[in-house]
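Dear colleagues,

For the upcoming journal club I promised to circulate an example of a predicted protein-ligand complex. I picked one with alpha-D-glucopyranose because it came up in last month's discussion. The inputs are reproduced below in full, followed by the predicted structure.
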Amino acid sequence: MNKASPTSEPKLTLSDPDRQQKALDILSPLVLTKTQKERVKEVFIEEMKLGLAASPERKSSLLMENTFIPELVNGTESGEYMALDLGGTNFRVIYVQLKDGKIEEEIIDYYHVPEDKRLGPGTELFDFLAYCISDFVHKRNLNLTGRTYQLGFTFSFPMTQKSLNIGLLVSWTKSFNCSGVLGEDAVQMLTDAINRRGDLDITVSAILNDTTGTLVMGSYLDPRCGIGMILGTGCNGCYVEKVSRIEKWPGKHSEAEVIVDIEWGAFGDNGVLDFIRTKWDRAVDDQSLLVHSYTFEKYFAGKYLGDLYREVLLTLAKSGVFCEGNVGGGEGGSLTKHGSITTKDISAIESEHFHGGRDDVKKVLERLGLKPDEDDLSIAQHVAGVVSYRGVVLVCLLIGVLLDRMEREHCTIAIDGSLFQHHPRFRPLMDKLISELAPGRPFDLRLASDGSGLGSALTAAVADRLQKKS
Ligand code: GLC
């Protein structure tokens, strides 16, 4: 059986050469040319510049938001802190005990955020978050009497930050769309919900994005960390930028560097990436919860990759190249049904392909009522490789630009998220492609598990230290 390699470009070999050529022709828009890759880099550089400009000639699709993180952990922080991590359907409540800047104890509990809370009125969402904190505190027997816990709030959505503890929601993304929160300060809404309960003495002292939390956690693990990334349901990155380059930040500043949240999930929302956009990308966008937004993220992030894959297979079927034109219709849906194939399926298909197997791919197709022959299985494996490969290339193009921009002797890139952890192509291919795209820029990819939440607790500790000092 054919074993694919995670670091090689996917190859398709069918027993029927005509069918093979037809499939490859259909798939060709998903294979980025050298010119397209160069252009993605150029456009990213330009959009970053516009996003940081004081009065840009046009609006950038990149928010390039100052996170106001004043300092990183310096080894003197001690005490107990809490954190919340909201961004996906799993919400985390975290307790951390620090001694001399080291995490001595951590407790993380997971809560499922039901759909009615993700799509209902904002106050109900924040009431639910406050309820979870209370549940956590009581279940874990945390002593609340006579003390105020400082809490870091990881709120993984685009925000305009006014300070470390003021974050106004710019837009919802991923699977959230609550009313009454746009333009509001998420810290205030959480504080109000905590106060409505009356059983918690908690001060929300910092709000941050999950990428920022990951970078803070990364720098705790390795002081050379300069980039934080999430490769999960959504995708985004942040990096350490020179304050002198942030033209849009008025006034004089004592710090030389600050973390900037790029919000690259929205890269291309103004049309600048249309030259790589395929009809399948448009179809995925059209069927998503928040259409015409987060263009870049929808090219490959965990919430969307399964659907992209399904759309491509659907076209191949309709062209008669795949499964004799059948689109299925089994217990698990069909090729026309949104959500019938998930990113988890793709990780499984890719994984067994790297081991030379084809049971999982067969199972996925049979679940949809399809009856694949051997060539169909090869096509299905190939397409999983093609959509995944394009995703990794896109992410690496951006990282390469950042490494060049930062000009560090060495840069550790802290990453959290299910796609990075469970999709077998991402990590090895990223290692290879980043080295090729940014030659002479040594880097390490470092998994920062639960980094987004733990980094938030660390940030609350840093804020506490600075406040005590002042
Ligand atoms: C979405 C959010 C962004 C977050 C990313 C990863 O892109 O807008 O803030 O960092 O998902 O969770």
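Two points we might discuss: Residues 87, 156-158, 173-174, 209-211, 230, 232, 234-236, 263, 265, 297 surround alpha-D-glucopyranose (CB under 6 Å). The mean pLDDT is 96.

See you all on Thursday,
B. R.
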